[in-house]
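We modelled the chain as a single entity of 206 amino acids. Its sequence is:
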Amino acid sequence: MAYTCPFAQRGLQDEIKLVAISLEDKPVWYKEKVHPANKVPALEHNGKIVGESLDLIKYVDSNFEGPSLLPDDPEKRKFAEELFSYSDTFNITVYGSFKGDPAKEAGPCFDYLEKALHKFDDGPFLLGQLSLVDIAYIPFVERAQIFLSEVIKYDITAGRPKLAAWIEELNQVDAYKQTKLKDPKGLVELYKIRYMVPYAEHFVLI
């Protein structure tokens, strides 16, 4: 896994042996022996390789001890699949907006989460209670919030009280707190280079 990668943050810190690799310089053996697509994260368990972070968290939920993080309620399961399906669009749109106008381009994505958080009233999370859906989204929201606030001065929670409460509630979850970024400033500098190369010098000088 790569510690700066939001896809790799969706995981089990205590139950799985983590092997850190560089996103910019992945070892040859990783593609040959672990994940032919050469993406992170990937999990080897009982002789099986599982890649793609959404598939991985579902696999972990089904194959490791502990209560399931997917509810039994059919309506909630159906909504969970809708949210899982939207996650790629959310990530691509939000992170793509770093090169353009985040308020205009990414705003509707955060509005989508705000609306989703109104669907169930039995808790502050996307399905009411903490679930895999929250785990799927929060690494990306965490990074986007840091970058957009620091560089663009855009507050993703402004006018979105449910989203603000969701982030605050997740910040109280011990399992999530253990995986949070330890170097937000490093992330900002990395994202400036990755997403805003033409403007990187400007941001360094001001």
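As a brief sanity check on the tokenised model: Strands lie at 42-45, 48-51. The longest strand covers residues 42-45.
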